[in-house]
Amino acid sequence: MLLAAARSDVIRRAVSATPLTRPVVDRFVAGERLDQSLTAVRELAGAGLAVTLDHLGEDVTDKAQVVRARDAYLALLEALRAEGLGERAELSLKLSAFGLRLPGGGEEFAHRAVEPVVAAAAEAGTMVTLDMEDHTAVDGTLTVLGALRGRFPRTGVAVQSYLYRTEDDCRALAATGCRVRLVKGAYREPASVAHQDRRQVDLAYVRALRILLTGGGYPMIATHDPRLIAIAEELARRLERAPDSYEFQMLYGIRTEEQLRLARAGHLMRVYVPYGTDWYGYFMRRLAERPANLGFFARSLLTR
Ligand code: FDA
Asked: Keywords assigned by UniProt (predicted)?
């Protein structure tokens, strides 16, 4: 229900209009403004954590929105450069914010729109990872990734263990030495393309993890699941992966103690920091991941 609501404009307007939502959103989103995201980056970097910054936005419907998304990322890179934070901070973005779903050649359009951001990131000494959206965006995202990696080989991508195709995608990506972020997957997908059972998603995660950790690329292990983290730590140890040849990732505001533990244990730990005004879809996906979040949200509405 929550994932369906994440795509509803009517519910988006209702939820976004109430100021009561704000404190709950703040748990998952660093702020609406660039300076708030930089404050979060400084705090996390001070605690020994790396970050990946996401200027929130997805599913744009016109080209003017694409220009705004591009400019927001360019401004972010300029600010990171000015603050000397390029080393600790990479960028994450959704190609649907760069026009992937626009009618008539979305892939080509998105490639042209996103390339200046990837080029500016390389100039600032950092890199970009393409988030993965629902299954209809996977082929387009991988095509744009391939085109970008011709000039910018450090560009990375997220893959989702709930999709049946992901083990094959991991094999292909690892063979090209790609940076690959492995996640379980956050969208509502049909049984024709994705595992529906959580246990199957977890087992598929372990299989994909093994492919990535034995392959030649740079695995980014993105999960808060304690069992999967323990398996990943053990696998990395057994396979004698050098500490700088993979990393762990978690979302801003989730399992912060565990983030610090992994960093203290000598792993590179990167926190995904979303910011911006278009937080609705991201926020609803976080609510859907954990029923307790919905209770937290409902309580905060009732106690005001
Ligand atoms: P799982 O959902 O089983 O959670 C394990 C434990 O983590 C829970 O028991 C709870 O303690 C904690 N937890 C997890 N989610 C929580 C929440 N929302 N609130 C509070 N506690 C929570 N997805 C996608 O489709 N495309 C993408 O590009 C990305 N990108 C991405 C980047 C990074 C860095 C991360 C960590 C995740 C993503 N995701 C994503 C989201 C991912 O697909 C998945 O939905 C979430 O990570 C939740 O799954 P877990 O692996 O954490 O396991």
From this structure: FAD, Flavoprotein, Nucleotide-binding, Oxidoreductase, Proline metabolism
- Share in percent of the chain as helix, strand, coil (round to 5): 55, 15, 30
In three-state secondary structure terms, 50 is strand
Look up residue 20 and give its two tokens. 């009561």
**Whole-structure pTM value:** 0.95
3-state class of 269 per DSSP?
strand
**Residue tagged active-site, from 134, 181, 202, 278:** 181
What is the rounded distance in angstroms from the CA atom of residue 84 to the CA atom of residue 81? 5
Q: How far is CA 128 from CA 69, 116, 132, 175, 180, in A?
A: 14, 11, 13, 19, 11
Annotated catalytic residue 139: no
Domain boundaries, the chain: 30-278
Two structure tokens written together for 267: 């792993």
The fold of 30-278 is: TIM Barrel (3.20.20)
131 is catalytic: yes
Q: pLDDT of 187-246, one tens digit each?
A: 999 999 999 999 999 999 999 999 999 999 999 999 999 999 999 999 999 999 999 999
In the annotated binding site for substrate, the residues are: 94, 285-286
Our measurement of the distance from residue 10's CA atom to the centroid of its chain's CA atoms, rounded to an integer in Å, reads 25
